[in-house]
Amino acid sequence: MGRVKLKIKRLESYSNRQVTYSKRRTGILKKAKELSILCDIHIILLMFSPTGKPTLFHGERSSIEEVIAKFAQLTPQERAKRKLESLEALRKPSRNWTMI
Amino acid sequence: MGRVKLKIKRLESYSNRQVTYSKRRTGILKKAKELSILCDIHIILLMFSPTGKPTLFHGERSSIEEVIAKFAQLTPQERAKRKLESLEALRKPSRNWTMI
DNA sequence: AGCCCTATCTATAAGTA
DNA sequence: TTACTTATAGATAGGGC
């Protein structure tokens, strides 16, 4: 969608990967938000920049735990039992996150 | 991106939400795949159709467990210890999933 | 319920300052 | 580099089968 048609393969230049990530991150986040609103659905988008910085998007209706539990088709009982223990770390503050 | 500019709000009609979901799902999956390849990054996209059918995309380099563990900044040791127990259900077969 | 079409809107690759 | 611009490629809303 630019001046030139890109081949979809790993960009050679690191700085190019950063610039492209930055631009496309904005775009895909917008798409995820629009989709979640228009169609009233649960959605999770989790991605890492080339430098390793994570971005998490989830719809307004749901936390990441809820969506993943839904995906795993856990019953509420199972969910409570397991407590989605491994995901609790996601709630720890003071991380280099972008949470949306 | 169509004949008319859509207002980004919940679509009134259920059938319309389904149709729009189907179209935009294709689009956002393509974006996720392109981003993961171009920028050589980890990414997870998990979404549910209006009927509740889940779709999971993850880059070729990583499983959902790996990406989420990375996000949670678990060490390999922690990861092994916890075994990401709650996510094991994701591996169960014969679900109504689209895994990509 | 899909699957094509295409006018129209949107994202973005390079370019520019 | 940090934005901003814009020509162009890409996504999609509504319509037709």
From TrEMBL, chains A, B:
One of its GO terms (biological process) is regulation of pollen tube growth. Its main location: nucleus. It is found in: Nucleus. Residues 1-61 form the MADS-box domain. Keywords: DNA-binding, Nucleus, Transcription, Transcription regulation. One of its GO terms (cellular component) is nucleus. GO terms for molecular function: DNA binding; protein dimerization activity. The keyword Ribosomal protein does not apply. It holds the Pfam family SRF-TF. InterPro entries: MADS-box/MEF2_TF, TF_MADSbox, TF_MADSbox_sf. SUPFAM superfamilies: SRF-like. This is MADS-box transcription factor 16. The lineage of its organism: Eukaryota, Viridiplantae, Streptophyta, Embryophyta, Tracheophyta.
